[in-house]
Amino acid sequence: MSLKRSFVIYTASSIIGSALPLALLPLMTRYLSVEEYGVVATMTTLIAFFTPPLTWGVPGIVSVEHGRLAPDTFRQFVATALSVPIVSLLLMTLLAAAAAPWVAPLLQIPSTWFAAMPLIAGLAVLPQVLSAILRMSNRPMSFGLVEVGQALATVLLSYAFVVSLNGHWQGRMWAYACAGGLASLAALVWLGSHGYLRRPAGAEMLKEVFRFGLGLLPHDLGNQAIRLADRLFLVALVGLGGAGQYAVAAQVTAVVMVLLSAFNRAWAPYLFPRLRDASPETQRQLVRVSYGVMAGFLAFFVVFNLLVPVAFHWFIDPKFHEAIAYVPWLSLGYFFTSVYMTYIDYIFYVKKTYLLSMMTTLNMSLNLGLNYLLIREFGPIGASYAFATTMFVVMLVAFWLSNKVHPMPWFYWARRRAAA
Prior knowledge:
Layout: H1 3-23, H2 25-31, H3 34-55, H4 58-65, H5 71-81, H6 83-107, H7 111-122, H8 125-136, H9 140-164, H10 168-193, H11 203-237, H12 240-275, H13 280-315, H14 327-349, H15 354-378, H16 381-405, H17 412-419
Helix pairs in contact: 1-9, 1-12, 3-6, 3-7, 3-10, 3-11, 3-12, 4-8, 6-7, 6-11, 8-9, 8-10, 9-10, 11-12, 11-15, 11-16, 12-13, 12-14, 13-14, 14-16, 15-16
């Protein structure tokens, strides 16, 4: 399937899958206080933070090995890879339970909910593996059905628990957990019926999965730590109210993430087969497509920010209108992310994920320092300044690293002009 057609299908499913939770935003801002919204934002960010050590890069290596291995060997590989998240889940649950009495008060959330975060995060493993298989099999329609189905379940359960049952922030979190449980059950049935849960292979495959995940883990954890850092600093320096305002801005800006997510899902199946063809013309074609993607996201960034004030006026409760000032900076950070996405997969392709970890360590340190300094200086909006600055640095460092391990003719047009 062509990149254009795949992108259209992935975009449509992403729009529907993301529009459903966004449709809840007017209701959530009405039924939840600013502080309650801050609690929900902190807890969902914690779930995202726990997800990388639980998945251990399994969806990523499943994507890389799809097409490289024979079908029967690939099924064995998936069954073997899934044993790693099981062990990780047990360890992370014990660590969270031990840390809860100390960490939960800092985040202003109940200790029992903090201890349960790894269990809720673990519900993402099987759906992510299923999604990776469907995506790399060029089955965007099936992928879209999985994504939209989980989003619809989240919306319906959130409405039931928060609006109908007046469950406050606890209702929102129960909806999140129940929707994840339903998605995991569906993924378990599909993987089992297609032979992905039988006949795990030997130690060599297990070592490969472990090495891949170990190299990727600091990168993924660093990215999530950056997300957690702004919430943590906001709660500590400003309070749950500031975290709630920032969370609304982040959810509005998630519209940009819809396109980023759709592009990322369509890009890897398009890119990896072409990287096996090392001809100069194929490389130049990939560079031209990448430039087109960057230009498209730049245009979207401009139009999106022109429309944001209208969206706040019509859909967001007035008590959250302070958040509108954060949106341009957050969306700028996402634009830098879109540029980063056009070349980060080169590092995945050559399996040098340890480079991502080195890069993320640097940027996590930068983000932590910027959050502390800028929130103290400018208040909650300082977190959005820190995010945009950090993603700019990520973009530059990732470009340098990716071009070092897999050189591409990014400036071939300049060389042609010089030669002429």
